[in-house]
Amino acid sequence: MSNNSSAISVKNLWQVFGPNPDKIVGSPDAKLPRAELREKTGNTAAVQDVSFDVAPGEVFVVMGLSGSGKSTLVRCLTRLIEPTSGSVVMNGEDVLKASEARLRELRRTKFSMVFQNFGLLPHRKVIDNIAFALEVNGIKKEQRHARANEVIELVGLQGFAQAYPEQLSGGMQQRVGLARALAVDPEVMFLDEPFSALDPLIRRDMQTEVMRLHKELGKTMVFITHDLAEALKVGNRIAIMRDGAVVQMGTAEELIANPADAYVEDFTRDVPKSHVLTVRTIARPLADTETATGRTIPANTIIRDATAAVLDANGPVGVVENGNLIGYVKSRDILQVVGGGNQA
Amino acid sequence: MSVRTEPSLTSAPRRIKRSWLLASLFLAWLVLARITKGKATLELPVPENTAFTTWVGDIADSIRGNRSDGAAFKYFFNPVREFIDGFVNVIRELIAIPNGNSSIPVLGWLGVLALIGFIVYSISHIRMAIAAVSLTFACGALGLWTDSMDTLAMTLAAVILSLAIGIPVGIWAGLSDRALKAVTPILDLAQILPTLVYLAPLALFFLIGPASATIATMVYSIPIAVRLTAFGIRGVATSPVEAGTSMGTTKVQLLKKVQLPMASRTIILGINQTVMAALSFVVIAALIGAPGLGKPVVEALIIRNVGEGFVAGLAVVLIAIMLDRSTSAAIQEETSFVPPSQADRKRRKFGLTIFGALTLVSIVLSRQLAWAAYFPEQIDISKLVAQSTDAFVVWVTENLQILTSGLSKVVTVGVLNPLESLLSYSPWFLTVTMITLISLILGGVRSAFVSFVLLLAIVASGLWFDTMITFTQTIVATLLTMAVGVVVGVWVGRSTRAERALRPILDAGQTLPAFVYLIPMLGFFGPSRFTAIATGIVYSIPIVVKIVGQGIREVPVNMIEAATSAGSTKWQLITKVQLPAAKKSLLLATNQGLIFVLAVVVIGGFVGAGGLGYLVILGGSKPQLQGKGLVAGFSILLLGVMIDRIAQYTVARNSAPKH
Amino acid sequence: MTRNKKVAAKASVLAAAAALLLSACGGAGVDANASAAPTGDAAACGSYAIAMHAWVGYTASAQVVTEVAKANGCDISQVTLEEAGVTYDAMEAGSVDVVIEDWGGGRWKEWADRGALVEVGPNGNIGLIGMYVPQWMADEYPDITDSANLNKYADLFKNDESKGKGAWYEGPPGYTTIGEKLVAANKLNYTIISTGSEQALIDVFTKADADKTAALGYFYEPQNFLAKVPLARIKFPANDWTDAEKASGLTDYPESPLIKLATPKVMDANDAFTKIVKNFSWTNADQNEVAADIESGTDPAVAAQKWIDAHADVVAGWLK
C-alpha cells in the first residue's frame, strides 16, 4: 500500500516524555525496552517508532492493554498530544507540520474523534453538542442545526435533540458522541475506546451501529480498543501494541493463525478460532484414501459458517479461491478447529 | 508487592526511634534551660527601639512625609486610593450613607430589603429570599441598620474588586502551569499571613480610611478567588476539553464554551468563599477606618461593654449567615445543567415580574416616605440583647468562676508558663538550636535548614523575645485545639448524626470573624494570655473538626470491615485503624490549626496577651514605636512561614513512602 | 448559567439600574417633607467628620459637639479610630476633621508641621493619668499610695500572669503610658501586663473592688467609672513633663489640659462648625455628667442633648 492511496500514512512516530525527549529518538537508547529506557534516561517512550497505513474506507483497529500506548498514539495522530518525531500524512499533507491555524481547520473539517468518556458538554443540549464543531467553525445557527438534525436521524437520536446529556443513558450519550463526530462529515474518524464505558449488551448494539454507519457512509476509521472480540468484529486490520510499539499488524485471520510472539498468542488464545479463521487456513490436499464430493465452498468462508455445508457433504469439500481449487476440508478438520478453539 | 511492604516494615522501628529522639531532645532542653534560665533572652523593653526598628520607623516617617509630593504617591498610590474610595462611596451612598445633598442613601431601608429579597430570589428560591430579608431586617432591629449597611457595602465593594482581579488571575493560573507556579507561593503566603499584620503597612501607603480597609480586605480575599477559580478550571473533566480541542476550538472558544461553563459551580463556590472572607475582614479593618459593624465591635472591645459588642457581633453573624446561605443556595441551584421545564420557567418569570414590581414600588416608597426611608426606631431589641448578654456574662463570671479561673490557672501554670520559660527565657541560641533540631527530626534536612534561617532572621529583627512569647501561646493553643478537635472530629467522622447536628455550628464558627470571639472571652477570663489562647482555640476548632472528621470518614470501608471482622473493639478500631489511616488529615488539621491560632493569638494583643501582636497594635498608635510595630508584623510573618514550612515538610515526609 | 438565571440576572441588573436612575432624577421626597433636623442656617455649615475614641469621656465631649453642630446645620459623621498616629493619618487623608480631646503633649507635631492638622487649644478638661489601687487597699494599707512603698506590697499583687512579681496592669496601646519607665526608673518589683483595652482595666478593678482582691492598674480622670468604683491614686514624685516620650520615668504623670485638634479645612471654613470647635470648652464635671448617662445605657445623642438643653447659656457662648 503506498502513501498516495492511503487515507492516513503514519511513519516512524515517536512520543517520548520526560526530561529530554528530543535526545532519545535516533540514539542507541531508543532501541531499549521501555523500562530500561526509563531507568537509564528518565524518559518514557509512550509511542515507539510506530508506522502504518490506513486505506480509504478501512476500519483500522489499534489494540492493546492499558498502558500499551494506544490512547497516546491516537492523540498523537490528531496532535492532542504532540508527538516527538515522525510523520502523519493525510491526503498528502503532514499533520505534524501544520500550523496552529491549519491544525484547527483540519480538526474542524477533516477529522473527528469519539471519546471513551463521551466528552459531551453537560451544559449544552444534544443538538448543540452535535453542532459544536460547526459552531466553532463559524457556521450559522440555522445551517448547523439543519446538519445536526440530519446526523441525529442517522444515529437514531430522534426526539432527543432538546435533551441534555445527563438526561440520557450511557449508550445514548455515546450516540451523541458519534453524531458529533459525524456532523462535520470528516474524512477520518478516530474512535478512542468508544464503548469501554458501556455495559456488554449496549456495547454490542453500539458495535453493530458503528458497523452499520461504516457500511452506509464508508468513513475511514481508526478504532482503539482493549477488547479483542470488539477488534475482530469491527476491524479490517488490527495492530497490536505493547509497551508503545506495534508487535504485530494484520487481518484477524493472520493474527490468529500466525501469532508473532507469545504476547499475541496469549491475547488470541480465548478467541474461538472457528469464528475467525477461514477455510483457507485448514484447506489441505486430498489424501489418497479420500474421494472428493464435488461440492466446493469459497476460500474466505469463515469456518463456523462452513460447518453445516461440510458436515452435510459426507466427504471432502473443495476450497476455491479466485476460481482455483486450493485444497479440501472434511468434517473432521472442521470439528478439530471448533473443538480445539474452545480450549482455554 | 514485595517492594510495597518494605517501607511499612522499616517504618515502625524508625517511628519509635523518632519519638524517642524527640523525647530525649526535649529532656536535654529542659535541663539546659534550667541551668541557663534568664541569660541571653534578648528581651527588649516595650518602649525601647533597636537601631533597626528606629531605622524602619524613619523610613515610615519619610514615606509619610512624601505622601503629597512623592512621585510614587502622586502617580500610583493616591490615584488608586481615590479610585477605590470613589468606588466604595458609590456603593455606600446606594444603601448606607447620605447620598449627595440628600439626608438618606439612594435606597431607604424598605428599598434595600426589597432589593436584597429580589436578588436572592433571582439566584435561588423564595424561601431563601424570605430568610435573607428577615436576617437583614434583624440587623435593623438590633439598632444597627446603618452600620450593617455600611458593612454590606464595604463587603460588596471589596468582593467586586476582588473578583475583578481574582477571577482573571485564577483563569490564567487554571490554564497555564507556569502561571500557577508563579502565583502559588503568593497565595500560600497570603494564607499564612495573619490579618493584623498588613493593616499598618497598607495604611502607610493608602492612609486611614475606606480605601485602605478595602485594599486590606482584597489582599485577604483575592487569593481565595484565585485559588478556587484555578481549581475549578483545572477540575474540569479532561474528555470534554479534549473533545473541544479535537473539534478545532481556539483557546478562547475552549475557555468560553467548555471550561468556564463547566467550572461555574466551583467558581460560584469561590465567590461564596470570597464573600465570607471579605466580610470577616471588614470587622478587623475597622482598625484602619473601615465604616460599619467593625466599629462597635472594636469599640466594645476597647471600652464599652460585652453586651454592646455582642450585639454588633450578632449583627455581623446575621449578615454572614445571610450572605453565606444566599450564595450557597445559588450553588445548589447549579447542581444540574438541565434547565427547568417550560412551565416552571413561565412560573418563575411570573414570580420575578411580580417580585420586581414590588421591589420597584418599595424602592420608590423608600425614597419618598420617611417611614420607609429611616429604619423605625420603635423596633429595637438591642438593649434587651445587650442586657441579657451582660447578665449572662456576669452570671458566668460569678457562678462559674471556679471553672473559668480554674481552667485558666491550670493551663497558665501547668503548660503556658513552663513552655514560655523554655522558649523565651532560655538563651536564644539554645532555643534556636532546639527548634532546628526538632524541625530536623520532624521534617528532615530541608525543614531544619528553612527553620534555622527564619529563626536567625527573627533574631536579627531584634524582637526575638516577643516572637517566642507569641510562639509559645500559639503552640499551647494549638495543642489544646488538637486535643479537643481530634476527639470531636473522630465523633463527627464516625457518626452521621453528630455530623448533621454539629455542621451548622461548624459552618457558623468558620464564618465568624475572630474578633467577635475576643469580647466574651475577655469577659470570662480577664486580660491574660489565656484569653488569647481560649479565643484561638474556639476560633480554630471548627476547621480542625472538619478536616479530622472528613479524614475519618474517608478511611476505606473495607479497612474497617476487615478490622471489625477480626474482632476489634470500638476503641481498637479508632486507635489502630481509623486514626492511623487518617494520619495525613491529622497533620493537615494541625497545620491549619496552627495558622488559624497564630492569626488569633496575634490579635490577643488587645486582651493582654502581649507578644508581637501587642507591638503591632502599639506601633499603630504610638508614632515613636511605629518602626517596631512594622518589624513585629514582619516577625509574625517569619514565624508563620516557619510554622507552615515545618508542618508542610512533616506532612510530605509522612505521606510520601506509604500507600 | 442556565437560561432562567440569565433572565434573573438581567432583571437584577435592570432593577439596580432603575434604582440608580431614580437616584439621579427622582429627587428624594424624604428630604423635602421629613427632614427631622432643626432648622439652622444650612448654607452656613459644611459637612465634617469627627474622630471617635474609645473612652466614654471622649464620647461625651464628641457627642455634645456633634449635636450642637447638627443643630446649626452642619452635616456631621463620626469615625471610630484609635487615637494618635492612626487618627492624625486619617486627618491628613481627609477622612477625619476634628479630635475633640487629645491627651498627648504635642505628639502630633510632625503632622502639624506638615500642615495636616492644627492645634486648636485646650477643651477645658484637665486630664490626670495615674496608677490606681481599689479604695479598700488604701484603707487597709494607708501607706500603699506612696510609690516608695510599692515594693513592700508587691507580693499582694502576684498572680499567674505576673511571673513571681507584682502585677502592674498597664493602659491600652492607644493611651499615653509610661509604665515601663516608671517600673524601671523606680526599680519596682512588678511585671507589666499590657491589658490591651480599657474594658479589661475596668474588669480588673470591678472584680478587685467586689471581691476585695488586690489590683494595681492604669487609670485616669475625668472618667465616670471612678464614681462607681472608688480607686486610690498612687503618688509618684511630681513633675510637669508633657511629652511622654521624653519622660524620665522617675516622676508621675502630670496634670494635662486636654487639647482639641482640627484640620486646616475646619479652621479655614469659618462656618458654625469652626466656631464650635474653636470655642468648645467644659469642665470635668460636665463631661462626667454626660458620660454617666451614656454608661447607664442612655443613647449618647440623647444624653448629649439633655446636657445641651440644661446648659443653653454655655452652648450659646460656643457659637459666638
Characterise this structure.
The complex is a heterotrimer of chains A (344), B (659) and C (320). Helices cover 36% and strands 22% of the residues of chain A. The longest helix of chain A is centred in the middle third of the chain and has 18 residues, at 200-217. Chain A is globular and about 75 Å long. With 344 residues, chain A is an alpha/beta fold. Chain B has 659 residues and is an all-alpha fold. Chain C has two domains: 10-126 and 256-318, Periplasmic binding protein-like II (D-Maltodextrin-Binding Protein, domain 2, 3-Layer(aba) Sandwich), CATH 3.40.190; 127-255, Glycine betaine-binding periplasmic protein, domain 2 (D-Maltodextrin-Binding Protein, domain 2). With 320 residues, chain C is of the alpha/beta class. In chain C, helix 3 links the parallel strand 1 and strand 2 (75-80). Chain C has 14 helices and nine strands. In chain C, the strands form three sheets. In chain C, strands 3, 4, 7, 8 and 9 form a five-stranded antiparallel β-sheet that branches. In chain C, strands 1-2 form a two-stranded parallel sheet. Chain C has a two-stranded parallel sheet with strand order 5-6. The chains are: A alpha/beta (344), B mainly alpha (659), C alpha/beta (320). Chains in contact: A-B, B-C. At the B-C interface, helix 2, helix 4, helix 12, helix 14 and helix 17 of B face helix 1, helix 2, strand 2, helix 4 and helix 7 of C.
